[in-house]
Amino acid sequence: MKTEPSTPETERLQPEGLVKIDTDTPLEAFLAVSGVIMLIFFMGIVQQGPAESLHEIFGEPIHVYTRAQAIADGVLIDLTSATDDKGQLLCKQAGFVVPVAITATAWHETVAAGGTWEPDGDGDVLKLSGGQSITGRLWDVLTLLRVACKRGAGTDRVHFQVLVDTHGDGRHRATVGLWALIGPGDTVAPVITIMVEGED
């Protein structure tokens, strides 16, 4: 790039002295001007505030699928209120102070893997073989997530694996790769979502 003084033509493209455009070819001039336009655009977003400016730019969203709806539809399973046999909150015992949910896919591949539904009173209950329990499986997932969170302090996502004894005989074990993301839920309050590797 040249370092000689700018011409009147290039000076007219400088937004109040923010950027000096000095080009050799029309292509460089085009790219430079495009860069200045984008700079001004993003500066406007920062000055106005992201939420307000994005709303003004894109308007009302066509459809919003909330976390609460995903839980109601069974896409997510809320673990926050899950308890052990003594009525103690499992997530709280594992050290989590924010809501925790797991995708239906991750639930079926870890907690419910190898289970069968059997009649129990007025409904059905999921039974696991080999003396295993839903509570025990879920505790394994939460404990390993907690270990991964301690190891990955300072990031918004962690990856970990769970060994699942699908038949309860110690011979049919499957390693399931999971990952968890912490971020804002339906409000600005943080929530944790556990997913199978590859889920988004």
Structure description:
A 5-stranded mixed β-sheet has the order 1-2-7-6-5. Strands 3-4 form a two-stranded antiparallel sheet. Mean pLDDT is 79; it is low at 6-22 and 36-48. The chain contains 7 helices and 7 strands, in the order ααααβαβαββαβββ. β6 and β7 form a beta hairpin. With 200 residues, the chain is α+β, with helices and mostly antiparallel strands. The chain folds into 2 domains: 8-58, no CATH class; 67-196, no CATH class.
Give the helix/strand layout.
Elements: H1 8-11, H2 26-48, H3 50-58, H4 67-73, E1 76-78, H5 90-94, E2 100-103, H6 104-109, E3 116-120, E4 123-127, H7 134-151, E5 157-165, E6 173-184, E7 190-196
Parallel strand pairs: 2-7
Antiparallel strand pairs: 1-2, 3-4, 5-6, 6-7
Helix pairs in contact: 2-3
